Amino acid sequence: MAENKNRALAAAILPLVGGAANVTTVVHCMTRLRLGLADRSLVQDEALKAVPGVMGVVEDDTYQIVLGPGTVARVTPEFEALVEEERAAAPAPAPAAVPATAGAVPEPHPVTAEELAARGAELKAERKARNATPLKLFLRRIANIFVPLIPALIGCGIIAGVNGLLTNLGWAPGVTPALGALASGFMALIAVFVGYNTAKEFGGTPILGGAVASIIVFPGIGDVEVFGSQLSPGQGGVLGALGAAVLAVYVERWCRRWVPEAVDVLVTPTVTVLVSGLVTVFGLMFVAGQIASGIGTGADWLLENTGAFAGFVLGGLFLPLVMLGLHQALIPIHTTLIESQGYTALLPILAMAGAGQVGCAVAVYLRLRRNASLRRTIRSAMPAGILGVGEPLIYGVSLPLGRPFITACVGGAAGGAFIGAFSMLGDTVGSTAIGPSGWALFPLLAGNQSLGLLIAVYGGGLLTGYLVGFLATYFFGFSKQMLTDLNADVDAGESGEARAEAEPTDAAPEEPGAPGGPGPEGTDGPSGRRPGTPPAPAPAPASG
């Protein structure tokens, strides 16, 4: 039954993105089906957003359909199978048309597949040009390296949490050593996986990137002395593996260019591992180790000395960072902290941004009692938002409204300040993995205090984010004009006079040019579109 459901969802999506002929690539991340499209104009955005199971769409360098965690991993193979089946069943190309005779009325010029492909390539190039700043391209590559590791980080992190609980309670002593090995095995070798993915992302041979990175975690590296001190296995961690694999890619490219083909299979791998390996041992490991140590020390100092302020800033600005794609810069920092300290204390603070969105959505739901369309959107998106999947609430509710997006960020800032304040008191709350947030982060909590206290602090942060996001949105999220325009039963076609009487007009007065004020011609907010209708594609994270 579940398999039929996933296949049905894939079958509903495929024709709305232009069919198999329009799909060039199919991949998925934590929450999104990411499609490369030959012609963006063939996509039926509104119909796609109305498909049950589709939480929203986001357009970046790929067309991203938000399906949610778990669902996307099951729908993607079905979608790929349908694409292959449709391509296999596609009819052969029609024979060339006979040239028109003299004096005959010329037939309309048919659009060929080549012309469609060229048009699609032009649209894709224009879209990429808008987002192809060097910084964003670099951060996107970083995300492509680390995002595939997130499922293993989550699985091992949960096992580590269970093992810690059993150990503290003194239960199952015969099983806890095995659980410890399961939880720690991946982290012990994470540098190898980072090296493999880095070489793949930068166009080298993946296994050579993994081979060079494996030097970092080899136990015998402890016998090597550099700059007067002994190296230690794992020194430099994922940052060292990243640098080593990038170096290996460039050495390999040089070899492919200059080494004769007859001996390429012997010389290129040897020179690549030898040169990049020696540079890693006698340079990168030491430098990356110092950087990793500095990141850990800096994060500890920031939270211990400016915890409440740092939490306020991080929790409040995280969603704007996501909108700009700059949040990807935090991924290697999180991973470095997990590798060196066992958890990242930044993620629970950043997760408060989602709590602000939930509180905001509840306020919108109560404020716009007659807007049945928007209330349906909130009801369908709320469970995912509580579990930490924020895209449906962001793109379907708060961002199109304008002001509520800002008040949601205020809620996230308050929740972040709450957790940061406890860090200043010495009660650090962290996560053993990256990816989940909201309630889904509870099984991954770790820190320097008991599990009960960690749960209490994190739960208190969520409640603070919910409450402040709700209050800020309820009292300051709408102007009088917004309430008049938006508080309507869209399905029933309620009149403007009835809308004006549907809600008390006690909102904050409208200021000229204020965020979220009336948009062009009967619309509201910066998107120029009535909320409650499916959101227009907007840039967002590539992690999912």
Question: Briefly, what is this?
Answer:
By secondary structure, the chain is mostly helical.
What topology does this entry show?
Layout: H1 2-13, E1 23-28, E2 32-37, H2 45-49, E3 56-59, E4 63-66, H3 71-89, H4 113-131, H5 134-146, H6 150-169, H7 176-188, H8 190-201, H9 206-217, E5 225-226, E6 229-230, H10 237-258, H11 261-324, H12 331-341, H13 347-350, H14 352-367, H15 372-386, H16 391-401, H17 403-424, E7 429-431, E8 445-447, H18 451-476, H19 480-486, H20 496-502
Helix pairs in contact: 1-3, 5-8, 6-7, 8-9, 8-10, 9-10, 9-11, 10-11, 11-12, 11-17, 14-15, 14-16, 14-17, 14-18, 15-16, 16-17, 17-18, 19-20
Q: What spatial order of strands do you see in the largest sheet? A: 1-2-4-3
Overall morphology: globular
Helix amount: 55-70%
Largest sheet: 4 strands, antiparallel
Number of strands: 8
Query: How many individual helices?
Result: 20
Quickly give the structural class. mainly alpha
Count of the domains: 3
Note the beta-strand portion: 5-15%
Helix/strand order: HEEHEEHHHHHHHEEHHHHHHHHEEHHH
- Report mean pLDDT, rounded to a whole number: 81
Distance between the termini: 26 Å
As residue ranges, the low-confidence spans are 108-117, 492-530, 532-544
Q: Any idea what the radius of gyration is?
A: 27 Å
GO molecular function: kinase activity; protein-N(PI)-phosphohistidine-sugar phosphotransferase activity; protein-phosphocysteine-N-acetylmuramate phosphotransferase system transporter activity
Active site: 29 (phosphocysteine intermediate)
Main location: membrane
Membrane topology: Multi-pass membrane protein
